[in-house]
Amino acid sequence: MSNNKIILMLKIAMVFGVCLILLGVYFHLFSQTIEEMGVNGIIISAACVSIGMALSLPTKMFLTFVLMKREIEQDEEKLTKTI
User: Fold this and answer.
1) Among positive and negative, which fits the CA dihedral 2, 7, 9, 10?
2) What is the pTM (predicted TM-score) of this model?
């Protein structure tokens, strides 16, 4: 699998994670059904937030490393062109 496909899949996972976080916050703050469920509703909203965070954080770190690698390669190209 090429780097572009991996980056695309990680971006999709990151967006899905953020959506799950927002869904969990919505459940916790605004949903009457979740409020009526009591403890089980709190568990559902907390599970959405925690799964969303698990999906979003590692992908951000990987994308940061990929972007840092690209920046280093671009800096090396600039140095070779100027010499």
Assistant:
1) positive
2) 0.73
